[in-house]
Amino acid sequence: MERGFESLFRESEIFANREVLSPHYIPEHLLFRDRQIQEIENAVTPSLRGERGRNVFIYGQTGTGKTSCMKYVVEQIKRLPMVKAEISYINCRVYNSRYRVLSKIASDHIPLYAKRGYGVIDIYEKMISWVEEEGRMLIAILDEIDIIKDLDDLVYTLTRANSDMKSGGITIIGISNKASFKEDLDPRSLSTLYENELAFPPYDSQELSAIVSDRVKSGFKPGVVDPSCINLVAAIAAKESGDARLALKILSRAGEISEEKSLKRVGPEEVRTAAKQAEEEIAYELINMLPENEKLIVYAIAVMTVNGSRYKRLSDGDDSFVLSGEIYNRYASIAESLGKGVKSSRLYRRYIADLNMQGIILSYESGKGVRGHTKLIKLAYNSARVKNIIEKSLFNEKEAEAKAGENVQEPKEE
Question: CA 345, 338, 144, 135 torsion: positive or negative?
Answer without folding.
Answer: positive
